[in-house]
Design brief:
single chain; about 110 residues; mainly alpha; 2 domains; about 0% strand
Length: about 110
Amino acid sequence: MSSRARATAIGMLGPGISLIGLIWILLDALFDPTPEAANFRYFIFDSPHLMIAVGTVVSAICWPISVQVARAQPEELELPDFEAELAEDALEDDEATATEEHGPYQWFPK
């Protein structure tokens, strides 16, 4: 995946959540025409309004990250190979254990 596609996906996460909340509000108004009491508590604790608020917070967090991803070089975005590091660590641990058990000369009796 290119860095531009990654940056776009990260940047659109928050607006996507907000859009789902907005669509939810519109569908609720369309299929349930009875008006509810539009008080402060309704706007704070109603699920679609909370989704819009969460989408706004996610946008505020993700947009700087998406800008950094867009500016990064492809080498900076590569994931490290943890399996190779774990294998090297296991080899070093085995060698250290063998040295502790049999001394520094690696002599193993038959």
